Amino acid sequence: MRWSAVVNPTAGRGRTSKALPALQSAFAAHDIPVHVSLDAVDGKRHAREAFARGDGVIACGGDGTVSSLAAVSADEQGPLAVVPTGAGNDLARHLGIPRRASDAIELIEHGRITTIDLGRATAQDGATTMFTTVANTGFDAEANRWANGVRWATGTPLYVLALLRTLAVYRPSPMRVKVDDAEWEGDAWLVAVGNTRCYAGGMMITPAAQVDDGLLDVCVILGVSKAEFLRRSPRVFKGTHTALDDVITMRGTRVEISADETRRAPELWASGERVGPLPAQLEAVPGALRVLVPEGSPLTRP
């Protein structure tokens, strides 16, 4: 089939812009036209036009770019391919898509199209966002907000820096989490809702999550001391934190998160982008996205 590429030049904290000549050359070798987006609105407009022509769309950027274009893909029922050039690239990681852009582009010739789920998040102010990876609130949302303003670090090292900085200024907050008919309430460092296993460049916050089971995986890290939180944080790199007594995991089709209304409402973020303030509702959207993956993609397997 025919493909059109949409490139976010700001992805990867400027790395995509620097790599643009090489990307354009690689796409040209496959006779794929390239649109360098001015912003998210421009990128989505171009994607809609490409789908209307019967093209598939290649999202070239990070998880925020991919989620934005995945929402268009779901609306238009057109196939999406991913060339990961962002800071996290966690959907690509989950699907087994090569991290090297030139290898990911080669999937246009050798990959296969499969169907996966998306998540839908709606904040208190009515803002609604489709997401591909993980939605989160609390400590990690504040770390995400700070990290988005940093240009001199990226990937997991940036998350570690954001963790240490946020630890100095953040404290656990009262949260209420409802997953289908199950409900939990108490002090929490963070609440993460995963469509995929990883966020923040490979941190396995919801290690049992699958992208084609029609469910969202929830991880709540309870309000332990700062010292204990810091000591146990490295376990998230391998996903072993879920075995701890102060971590709660749940799974369901619909999630509601709210916070103490007497305090400033925490914000919900999803796939690295701000959604809006709590309370928020999240739901799985089964089979919403047609996406190109390698032959033998691990898909739902760790």
Let me know the average pLDDT.
92
Give the overall shape, derived from the CA principal axes: globular
Question: What is the helix content?
Answer: 25-40%
Q: Report the count of strand segments.
A: 15
CATH class of the largest domain: Mainly Beta
If you consult CATH, what is the topology of the largest domain? Tumour Suppressor Smad4
Total count of domains: 2
Question: What attributes characterize this protein structure?
Answer:
alpha+beta, Rossmann fold, globular, single chain, 302 residues
Explain the layout of strands and helices.
Layout: E1 3-7, H1 15-29, E2 34-36, H2 40-52, E3 56-61, H3 63-76, E4 80-84, H4 90-95, H5 101-110, E5 112-122, E6 128-131, E7 134-138, H6 139-147, H7 155-169, E8 173-179, E9 182-194, E10 216-222, H8 226-232, E11 247-252, E12 254-259, E13 267-270, E14 273-277, E15 280-293
Parallel strand pairs: 1-2, 1-3, 3-4
Antiparallel strand pairs: 5-6, 5-15, 7-9, 7-13, 8-9, 8-12, 9-10, 10-11, 12-15, 13-14
Helix pairs in contact: 2-3, 6-7
